[in-house]
Amino acid sequence: MKTTEIVYGWALGKDCERLAKLSRAGEIPVSQEDWEKYLRSKDGIVRVAAVDGRIVGYCATKVNDKGTEITSICVSSLHRRQGIATQLVRQIKRSRGPVVVTVPEISSDLIGLFVREGFRSSLVRNWSKHYDGIRFID
Questions:
Q1: Are 98 and 137 in contact (CB under 8 A)?
Q2: CA distance 61 to 101
Q3: CA distances from 131 to 24, 103, 107, 134 (A)
Q4: Predicted structure pTM score
Q5: pLDDT digit of tens for each residue in the chain (138 aa)?
Q6: How many angstroms separate the CA atoms of 122 and 120, rounded?
Q7: Is the separation of the CB atoms in 93 and 68 below 8 Å?
């Protein structure tokens, strides 16, 4: 059985088209133009996972002097259940300051991920138009 190597790194401007395509599979699609703005901003940082040179997952963050907020996390459907999101979150947790993320209460996979990684949780009422959210803090 062939083992596929997963390589982790930082997103660059040239990755915006792939990030936009990948985000369409997630809960909140982001356009290529918005990814370009995100990466040009002083606080927008995106950690990526790649297989055979192709980005298959990302964890987008906003970093400031108070810590890091995970704004979006996504893994392609073909590469889920391989620990990619877990590794991306662990790499972000090594950043300075606390890590915060809020996810929809219906997103059981993400809730499970952050619970397993030791984040503390609290309910956020009316987080979005349709759902309450759960805020996790490392």
A1: yes
A2: 9
A3: 20, 10, 10, 10
A4: 0.86
A5: 455 688 988 999 899 999 999 988 776 788 999 999 999 998 889 999 999 889 999 999 998 888 899 988 999 988 888 899 999 999 998 876 789 888 877 788 888 999 999 998 887 776 666 667 777 888
A6: 7
A7: no
Neighbours of 82 (CB within 10 A): 16
> Which 3-state string (H, E, C) describes the chain?
CCCCCEEEEECCHHHHHHHHHHHCCCCCCCCHHHHHHHHHCCCEEEEEEEECCEEEEEEEEEEECCEEEEEEEEECHHHCCCCHHHHHHHHHHCCCCCEEEEEECCCHHHHHHHHHCCCEEEEECCCCCCCCEEEEEC
**Tokens 């999101």 identify what position?**
85
